[in-house]
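Ligand-bound model needed. PMT.
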Amino acid sequence: MSDVPLQGLRVLLGVTGGIAAYKSADLVRRLRDAGADVRVVMTENATRFVGALTFQALSGHPVRTSLWDESAEAAMGHIELARWADLVLIAPASADVLAQLAAGRAEDLLGTLVLASKAPLAVAPAMNQQMWAHAAVQANLETLRQRGVRILGPASGSQACGDVGDGRLLEPAEIIEMLAAERGPRPFAGVRVLVSAGPTYEDIDPVRYIGNRSSGRMGFAVAAAAIEAGARVLLVAGPVDLPTPAGAARIDVRSARQMRDAIIGAAPEHDIFISAAAVGDYRPQSISPSKLKKSGQPLALELIQNPDILAEVSGLVGRPFLVGFAAETDDLEHQARDKLERKGLDMIAANRVSTTLGFERDENALLLLWAGGREELGQADKRSLARTLVDRIARRYAAGLAAP
Ligand code: PMT
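Prediction:
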């Protein structure tokens, strides 16, 4: 990514009331480092957390806090400011401002500017996890999403109030990365991408199952990167605890056979299928209807093979462009190339299973293989790795379309 990925972008940054407002100061600095020109508008509540002077010093421009400031209106009036912006970004966006935006209320300067501006709107929510989960907040978000508002985050983790969960403001660097990615090329514009992610669980009895260590992070990052690249994405997710990437449709499944049914049903409607899920190869022949009891004797479970979803999609008439993953402990390249050929794939992303990479980790490294080619993508966090992977898939996909 270039050092000034937002060069010349005129960002109207709305800061609303919440403890995360302190992070917006760093956001202003980073936006400017990335080449953006930033003007800050604060709600009255935001000024209770951080002083306007901080934002004035960092942005290099006076900060607006009220619709009724005569001297500010004489300099750059609010309508002029709304016209000036290439992007309106609200970070942090409180539950209250989301409600105000969803209702289209112009009761303060920020609400008025949003209505008066033709610029795209992005919001980075930040609030307590219980507030984030509230049906009213989620309904407001859905309204905004349907209106084309870009929802950035939130992140998950420990919160200022002591709770743990979804609702943290994304880190400023992540916000910049997401904005920059949207300004970049959109090679998947108009392309429909199906992504599978996470593990599958095979029930043994009402309380036990056979599963695997996939967290879903790799597949969810691939879905998010495909959206950034302009794709319409359907994500088929095994049992994971991850928020849906903004803009993706999602089907949740549990077992390999449920995943198979969802994917076989959706595949004909998609141009590309990226299979990042760690699908269980075996399941118990039968599920005990009651909890299995200890008997003092060894217990043998009879396992039967699950359908191979990728291989089945590969056999469909008019199948999508197919990208598989391979998780291997030994002989990575040889095993992955064998899977590429045996399953009839267009590309495979091989990763070594280790204690620091791959399953359950934030970082990964991939070896990409296709007929007659290979490329190593070095160790990186899964989000940036997914962006590079999507870029490479887009190139191979386009090359395939161009071939006679
Ligand atoms: O989820 P994370 O914690 O982020 O970890 C990411 C990951 C390590 C799970 C991911 O990067 C990965 O490697 N996913 C594929 C793991 C896997 O099951 O590999 P495999 O070699 O067993 O399967 C090869 C391919 O066939 C995969 O694309 C798999 O989705 C597919 N498959 C496998 C079995 C099966 N019955 N049906 C399938 O479609």
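The pocket of PMT is lined by residues 214-218, 256, 275-279, 281, 306, 308-310, 324-327, 339, 351, 358-360 (CB under 6 Å).
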